[in-house]
Write a structure and sequence with these properties.
2 helices; 53 residues; single chain; mainly alpha
């Protein structure tokens, strides 16, 4: 299982979200923490530093 930490800046902005937005975030976070590659987590994989010099 992943260990996820949040910055103080994130926490401050999270508090300003609506109840529905917080609920959606917590649901997505739960899915992501169980399986980062699950389609509902909307996470994209990146390979190396392609395109950078």
């Amino acid at each position: 299982m992943l260990k996820i930490t949040f910055t103080e800046r994130f926490k401050k902005h999270f508090r300003s979200l609506t109840v529905n937005e917080k609920k959606l975030f917590k649901n997505k976070l739960s899915i992501f923490s169980e399986n980062p590659l699950h389609p509902l987590s909307e996470n994209k994989t990146h390979s190396g530093n392609r395109g950078f010099v």
